[in-house]
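Side project, low priority. Logging it here so it doesn't get lost.
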Amino acid sequence: MQFEAFPRYIEELSREISGRGNFMIPDYQRPYKWGIDECETLWNDIKDAFKEKQSESHFEYFLGSIVTYKNSETKNLDIIDGQQRITTLTLLFRAFYYYFAKEAPGEEQKGYLKNFGRFIWELDLGTDKIVFDKPFLKSEVITDQDGECLQKILTENLDFEYLEKSNSRYAKNFLYFKKAITDFINNTNNDETSGVLNFPKLCNTILGKTFAVLFVTCDSVNSAMTIFNTLNSRGMPLSNADIIKGYIYKNTKSKEEFAKKWKGISSDFEEYNSKDDMSVLFIQAMHVIRAINNYTDTTTLSVLDFFTKKKKGSFGYNDGYLAKQEKIDELMEFVEILVYFWANPQTYLSKKAYRYFNVLSLHQNDTWKFFVAFLVWRNKANFIRDEFNENFSKEFEIYLLDLLKAVTAKFLSNDASTNTIKELVFKMNAELNKGIDFSYKEKIFLPDGFMDLFSSSDKNRRLDTKKVKYLLYLYAHIYDDFSSDIENYKLEVEHILPKTWQNINFDEWNEESHSEYLEQIGNKILLNKPTNIKCANNFFSLKQDKYKDSKNSQEVRDLGNRENKIWSKADIEARNRDIEKALRNFIAK
C-alpha cells in the first residue's frame, strides 16, 4: 500500500482539487449522515478555536483526516474517509458565501466572496470568476431527492422556500449554518468574541493558517478500500451495512451495477425507515440464512462476524455471501425484496394476514420480524415474478397467525423479553424449514391471574401503556374475528370511566369506587386520536355519540350504540371477563 500524506489548511483544499476534476464521493461510500448535532459541534469547535487564536497567534486546530484516491478513469479525487467533513465544510462555506453575496455586499467583501467561493466552485482561469455550474463536490451515492437539494444549494441563487420545506440533511445543515452566522454577527449569545466587529476576524481565521487536516492520497483502489473498511469518520463510525457494502464492492464483478442497485435499495429503504440504517436488513438476512441451515443457537454472532469471520455458526462467511458472485447476487436480491415488503406489506398480504401483521407491529420488540423475513425468503420467487397467488396468501395467513399466537402467549405470561422471543422465533424458523409442526403449540399455557399485568384496582399503579395498547388492539380484532381494519398508529388508550374524578357522586359511583375501577382493563378501550380528544373527561353517556365514529373499532361503535347510557361496575367486571375469555380462546384454538 502506498500513499502520500500532507497537512493542509482547509482553505488550501481547493488547490488539491484544482485541475484534477472533482472531490467525488464514490458509489461504495455511505450517504451523507451528519445532522444538526454534528454541525453544531463543528461550529462550536470553530468558535472555540477562534477564541484561542485571539490570545495565541500560533494556535492551530486539527479537524481530522481526508483520505482520497486518485481515480485514473474519472480523473477525480475519490473521498474514502472524510466525506462527512468535506460535505459539511462545503455547506458552511456556502453559508458564508451567501452572507457576503446577499447580506453584506460591497467592494470590500469581494475578497471574502472569492476565498469562500473557491472552496465550493471552480474559478475561470481567464476571468478569475466563480463558475457556479461547476461545484467541486460530487456524489455517486447520493439519493435523487438529496441530489436535487444539494444541487439547489450549490447554485448561485438559492431557493429558500424549497430549502425550508425540505427534509434533506443538506438543507437543514445549510440553514443551520446560515442562522449560526447571523447569530454570531448579532451577538445573540452575549459572547464577547462574537459580533459584527469580530466577524471579519472569524472569517480570516477560517481562511487562514488555523484549521488543518491531514490530506492523504492513495495510489490504488485496493488501498482505498482497505482504508475505507478500517477508518471511521469523526464521530460517525461506519455502520455494519457500510462495511458490508465495502466487502461486496471489493469482490463483485460488476461494480457499477452493484453500486446502482445499492443506491436504489438505500433510497427506497430511507423513504419508509429514516430512523435505522440498512444494517437491519442484513440482520434479518442473517437469521434467514441461519434458519435454512437449521441453526437455533440463541447465542448469536454480530452481523459483521456472521458475514466476515470464520466462527461457529458464521454461515454467511462460510458460504461466501460477500465473496462469491452467485451468493452476492442472492443476498442483494433478497435484501431488495425485503425493502419492497417492509415498505408496503399491505400490498402483498391478504386483509386478514395484514391485520395479524399490524397487531405484531405493536409488540414490545421487533424480534418477531425475523420469522416474517423467513416467510418472505420462502416466497421470494413470488416477488421476483411479481405473482402473489392464493398459495402465497394462504401461507402468510396461516403462519402469521401462528406467530401472533406464539408471541402473544409469551406476552400474556410476562415472558416476552427479546431473548425469549428470539429463542421462540429461531425454533419456529428451523421447524418451518424442516416442514414439521411448531413445537411451541405443545407449550402454550396462560397462568391464572395473567390479566393482573394489564389491570389494577389501584389508580396509582402505573401500568405499561404500550403493553396495554397491544392487548386492547389484539382484543379489538378478536372481537370482530379480524374482519375489519383498525389503524394501529393513530390509536390512544381511553378510560371509559372519566380519568379524573369530578367530585360528583352519581348512581353507584363515588371517589373510592372510581379509584378502584379506573385502571382495570375492562375500563379501557382504544380510540382514534380525534375521538379521544372530543371525549375529553366526560361521562359515558356524553361519550357514546363520539364512539360511533366509523374510524373506531367495531367494539367501540357497539358501545356507542348500546341503549344503556350508564357505565357501571358490573359493566367493567363483565368486560374484564370477556377480554380474558377471548384471549384464552384465541390462544387455544
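Brief comment: Residues 272 and 343 are 6 Å apart (CA to CA).
Revisit when time allows.
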